[in-house]
Amino acid sequence: MTVGVTASGPSLGFRLSEFSDRRFKYLVIAPAILIILLIGLFPLIYTLLVSVQNISMTEEDTSFHGAIQYLALLRDSRLWLALLHTLIIAAVALPAELILGMLMALLFLERLPGRQIFVALLVLPIMIAPVVAGATWRLLFDNRYGPINEIIGWFAGEPVTILWTINTHFVYPAILIAEIWQWTPFMFLLQLAAFMNIDQSLTESAQIDGASYWMIFRRIMLPAIWPVVAIAVLIRGLDLFRLFDVVWALTEGGPGTMTETISIYTYDQGFRQFDTSYTGAIAFLVIVLLSLVVVAALRRMEIDR
Amino acid sequence: MKADPAKWRGPRRRTWLLMARYAAAIALTILFLFPVYWLFMIAFKTPDEIFHSPPVWYPAQIQFANFAVLFKDRDAVTVGNSLFIAACSTLISMFLGTLCAYSLARFKTGGENLAVWIISQRMIPPIAVVFPLFLLYVWFGWVDTYFGMILLYTAFNLPYVIWMMRGYIEDVPIDLEQSALVDGCTRWQVLLRVVFPMVRTGLFATAVFSFVFAWNDFIFALVMTRSAVTTYPVQVTHYFGAQSNFWAKIAAMSMLGTLPVLLAVAALQKYLVRGISLGAVKG
């Protein structure tokens, strides 16, 4: 590539620019940092502030109330259930996406004519808005006009009318299917890229030495993709912790509060109950929990780089 | 060339294995694309075909009445809102974010701590900040305004842009910049004439992903919009009524909102891996 640089000015310019760099480097980060602080740090401070007051739909009490909201958190079974729901969904979806994605990556790892087209098609779900994905699955799961019950009916030999988004036995499977459908391609794509980055001479020489496919997979391929798997799990784990859109489109947390995630519960407290101080306490709890995990994980990621 | 484990077991077995892998690949592709197919087909069906039991697998003929209704009822305006908000926030966050990334990459401003803090801002769950931000927006009168939405998505894309562009800029050989400086260029000239041309593919890919994030967001738009600047994902959920769902509208609106994104992704297959792994995997 040719770079058009006009040579003008004295060679002294190098030292001069080094001098002005000190101002330049702060000048260019300032606007970005200010915006991030406004949207990132302000909420943190504000949340902390209202969470020690007592503001709700009926109260407007801005005096200091200490930790009453935080004590209320401890007694709030709906909050802990919401946290539990979130963790259950994550505990099933994350390994499922990881393993399915890995199997798919192995399928496409070796030469397969037309591979690029398959991969391009398989990753489409990632880019669909999660709320649209949820809406799509709601149409697919419809008990009368949806194709899922129809297809199950073929195998069952009789018409089935499962109320996927209402029946207590089927809401979780419905949410998990939608979630796993959308994000398995993410795991697939990252793991495929990681597998393809493995040095071929390693696996080839192991093969010549008579190692079985399983041995090569366990001893060479798996350790090689491990850093990528760690990052993929981190990204997906954080996404699952804040799960909102898909569940909102499918069930809105129902039936009752059965599928309420921590995000949906917080939304409910803030924007339906207008419990300002209490929502502040929940939000602060979530920020603190997540920040600790994120910073620790990112530092490790940085070191590994 | 790739080592084939079946290489020493005869060509017949190899052909058979390839066929089996093909069958699996096709089955998987059908499985993963079926929901998208179904959504798009509903968008083209007549009401009789949509509400038919057993379901109709494809419309008898392609007709655009469902889309026409969206435009007639002015619902399609929400796609325009999404476009305007996502485009503006992408442009602003790309501009400010790339400058910031350059400072982080070349001068190590703030060291690793600042960089890690910036990307950690991206990972905080939206629900934890959206409530206090809503109160702030009410205070300033920014709820349901283009300005408010653009500022919001700019702020949320900035950490991503900075993190990604920092990676792309670090890949640029520093010698080129130094020789430009020796030749008397100012830092701004170096940015404009050396750095930006070198990272233009990274710029493009990062911009598309930022656009998609803003385009696909639901929770901020749900909270911060009322009617004036409603974005298309929020509009889709408005169709879910307690009694009946406006299926045709859901499908047609979803398709309007999904198609541009699918086209964008098709255009940057090469950068997909790096883009979605936050730069961790340079596939």
Task: Describe the structure concisely for a colleague.
The complex is a heterodimer of chains A (305) and B (283). With 305 residues, chain A is an all-alpha fold.
Structural class assignment of chain A: mainly alpha
Care to count the β-strands of chain B?
0
Give the CA-CA distance, first to last residue of chain B.
Answer: 18 Å
In the CATH scheme, the class of the largest domain in chain A would be Mainly Alpha
What is the CATH homologous superfamily assignment of the largest domain in chain A?
A: MetI-like
Q: How are strands sequenced across the largest beta sheet of chain A?
A: 1-2
Question: Which keywords apply here?
Answer:
heterodimer; A: 305 residues; mainly alpha; MetI-like fold; two-stranded antiparallel sheet; 73% helix; globular; B: 283 residues; 14 helices; 74% helix
Structure description:
- The complex is a heterodimer of chains A (305) and B (283).
- Chain A has helices at residues 13-51, 68-75, 77-109, 115-122, 124-127, 130-140, 147-156, 171-196, 200-208, 213-241, 245-250, 262-271, 276-304, and strands at 54-55, 60-61.
- Chain A has 305 residues and is mostly helical.
- Chain A has a two-stranded antiparallel ribbon.
- In chain A, helix 3 packs antiparallel against helix 10 (213-241), helix 10 (213-241) runs antiparallel to helix 13 and helix 12 (262-271) runs antiparallel to helix 13 (276-304).
- The longest helix of chain A has 39 residues, at 13-51.
- The two termini of chain A are 28 Å apart.
- In chain B, 50% of the residues are buried.
- Helices cover 74% and strands 0% of the residues of chain B.
- Chain B starts with 10 loop residues before the first helix and ends in a 7-residue tail after the last helix.
- Chain B has helices at 11-44, 47-50, 65-72, 77-107, 111-123, 126-140, 146-170, 174-182, 187-198, 200-216, 219-224, 232-238, 247-267, 269-276.
- Chain B has 283 residues and is mostly helical.
- Classes of the chains: A mainly alpha (305), B mainly alpha (283).
- The interface between A and B is large, with 117 and 113 residues.
